[in-house]
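Sanity check. The docking grid for adenosine-5'-triphosphate depends on where the pocket ends up, so I'm generating a full predicted complex first rather than guessing from homology. Inputs follow.
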Amino acid sequence: MWCICRATSSRTSSPRCWPSRSTEPSRDCWQRSHPFVPESIEFRAAGVRTHPEGRTLLEPLDLLLAERRISVIGANGSGKSTLLRLINGLLLPTEGTVAVHGNDTRTMGRTVRRSVGFVFTDPLSQLVMPTGREDVELSLRTLRLSSGDRRSRAGEVLRRFGIDHLADRSSYDLSGGERQILALAVVLATEPRILVADEPTTLLDLRNDARVRSLIAGLDQQVVFTTHNLDFALESDRTLVLDAGRIVFDGPADDAVAHYRQLCSCAPLGGP
Ligand SMILES: Nc1ncnc2c1ncn2[C@@H]1O[C@H](COP(=O)(O)OP(=O)(O)OP(=O)(O)O)[C@@H](O)[C@H]1O
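Predicted complex below; grid placement will be based on this.
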């Protein structure tokens, strides 16, 4: 049975979930639909406004994210990246709280950042070393390994991602897609408990798009990602649709994609 969950404006942490075809919210429904991941990302009345003008980038939202694969879709500027940045404390909510596995991003930022790996849309914003191998080694420093262990582990990571031939090249000499896979390898090298990825396939050709999607599908970690590729969104367990800083749909991916198509008036003429 599917549970349809929607964002609420209430200041409770309980998600509002409805067994399909019911109008009554059900906590039991929520629990049955989340049997696999006991830990979660929790947004409590978390909203974001700019300073000093006070423009709302994200309306306050109450959400509990516990599924393994969660996608966030919506138009340009709807607030998807803003929502993702709240998860690792890159951005703090102007009001309310965000907690990752019980750790408040405001007061436990370092702990949160150790458990959340973040992949940016622009890979060059996280590839800072002269070569790809050194970028992976830099990422591995958080594990306090010896330099020899870091080097051999970096080699293993690059091989696992099929990019060991890029190890000694500058990221500036790589194609956009090669950079994007390298950035993903750099972040996953430390095996974060959660992967948050902002449009991780946006620069990829068909082959690499399929490779990265299959890699993400096979990860043990919880993954939260934004995408404009609706086929990719359909591979998730739960999809949030954002519009003008507000979650306008939260539920199964296929329903969410249909909702988004209607929202942007790009549903095929004569379609359902
Ligand atoms: N630091 C900031 N200061 C002011 N406005 C901002 C800031 N960051 C983002 N915005 C604005 O907030 C809105 C949401 O931005 P966000 O990057 O979250 O959108 P998005 O849904 O990820 O868009 P896209 O699909 O184009 O990547 C945009 O209008 C953007 O211009």
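Relevant for the grid: The pocket of adenosine-5'-triphosphate is lined by residues 50, 57, 74, 76-82 (CB under 6 Å).
Also worth noting: The chain has one domain: 3-16+36-263.
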